[in-house]
Design a protein that fits this description.
about 300 residues, alpha/beta, eight-stranded parallel beta sheet, 13 helices, 8 strands, about 45% helix, globular
C-alpha cells in the first residue's frame, strides 16, 4: 500500500516577500502558524502559488528548509521540486528529503514538455533518487502537456510515486484515472472541484483559496470524509464565486493581492507577475467583502 502524505486540505502557500523581493521569513513563520491554528492539514511550499519559477535556487531551497523547521512535524510539508530539467528536479527533490519534507510535488516539464515516454523517464529518475513520496502534478493549462492514463499506469508501479494533483479541470479524465489507476491517490488541484474529485475517491485538495480560508477549506474535506456530503457541498458552493475570482488573473496574482487587502502584508510579486488590472481588483474586493473574508 502506498504511503499517503496527507488527507484533507493542503494549502498551496504563497511566498511572502520583503520590499527588495527576497523571502520574508518572519512573515512566512506567521502564516505557517496561522495555518496550523486553523486546521490546515498540509502545506506545499514553493509550488506554483509560491512563485517557485521566479525564486533563485538558493532562496527556493531556503524557503523549503525554513518551513520544515518552523512546522516541526505539526502538519505535512510538501516541497515543490518540479522542473523542466530532470536533473534539476532530482537535485531539489534530494534536498527536500534531506531537509525532512514529507513528500515532493513535481509538475510536468513545461516548455520543452516531453513525450509520454519522456514523462515516464523523467518521473522515474526523480522517484528513484529519493525515498519520500512523490506527488505528480498534472496542470496542462500551464505546462502544455497532459499525463496520459497509460503513462500513469507505468508510473504507479513505482512504490514512492503515490498520488497525482489533478488540475486539468477535466472530470472525464479524472474519472478515467481513478478507474484505470486506482492505486494512485488523487488530490484536486482545482478549488472549484474539491467535492466532485472527492466523490470519485479523491483524498483532498491542494488549494489556493486555503491561503485566505484555511478552516473552511479543511472543513469541506473533513465533512466529506466523515460522510457529511451535504454540508461539504454547501461550503463548496458558497465559496464558488470567490474561488472563481481568485483566478480572474493568473495565479498567484489574485490570492496574494487578496492577502494584502486583508492585511497580511505579504509583499509584492516577482516579474513577469505584476499588479492586478483595476477592474479585476474591484471584482476581487467585492468577492472578499461578499463572502465576509477576514484576516485570521
Amino acid at each position: 500500500m502506498k504511503k499517503l502524505p496527507f488527507t484533507g486540505s493542503c494549502v498551496a502557500l504563497i511566498t511572502p516577500f520583503n520590499f527588495d523581493g527576497t523571502p520574508n521569513y518572519k512573515k512566512l513563520d506567521e502564516i505557517l502558524e496561522m495555518h496550523i491554528k486553523n486546521k490546515t492539514d498540509a502545506v506545499v511550499v514553493c509550488g506554483t502559488t509560491g512563485e517557485a519559477s521566479t525564486l533563485p535556487d538558493s532562496e527556493h531551497l531556503e524557503v523549503i528548509k525554513h518551513s520544515v523547521k518552523t512546522v516541526n512535524g505539526r502538519m505535512a510539508v510538501i516541497a515543490g521540486t518540479g522542473s523542466n530539467y530532470t536533473d534539476h528536479a532530482v537535485e531539489f527533490s534530494k534536498k527536500a528529503e534531506e531537509f525532512g519534507c514529507d513528500a515532493v510535488l513535481c509538475v510536468t516539464p513545461y516548455y520543452n514538455k516531453a513525450t509520454q515516454k519522456g514523462l515516464v523517464l523523467h518521473y522515474t529518475k526523480i522517484a528513484n533518487a529519493i525515498s519520500i513520496p512523490v506527488i505528480l502534478y498534472n496542470v496542462p493549462s500551464r505546462t502544455g502537456v497532459n499525463i496520459s492514463v497509460e503513462a500513469l499506469k507505468e508510473l504507479a508501479k513505482i512504490e514512492n510515486i503515490v498520488a497525482i494533483k489533478e488540475a486539468s479541470g477535466n472530470m472525464s479524465y479524472a474519472m478515467k484515472v481513478r478507474r484505470e489507476v486506482p492505486e494512485l491517490y488523487m488530490y484536486s488541484g482545482n478549488d472549484d472541484l474539491i467535492v466532485p474529485i472527492m466523490s470519485i475517491g479523491g483524498k483532498g485538495v491542494i488549494s489556493v483559496v486555503a491561503n485566505i480560508l484555511p478552516e473552511e477549506t479543511h472543513n469541506i474535506c473533513e465533512y466529506y470524509l466523515n460522510g457529511e456530503v451535504e454540508k461539504s457541498a454547501k461550503l463548496q458552493l458558497e465559496m464558488l464565486d470567490l474561488i472563481n475570482n481568485l483566478f480572474i488573473e493568473v495565479n498567484p496574482i489574485p490570492v496574494k493581492t487578496a492577502m494584502n487587502i486583508l492585511g497580511y502584508e505579504v509583499g509584492g510579486l516577482s516579474l513577469p507577475l505584476c499588479e492586478m488590472e483595476e477592474k479585476n481588483l474591484e471584482i476581487l474586493k467585492k468577492s472578499l467583502k461578499s463572502y465576509g473574508v477576514k484576516k485570521l
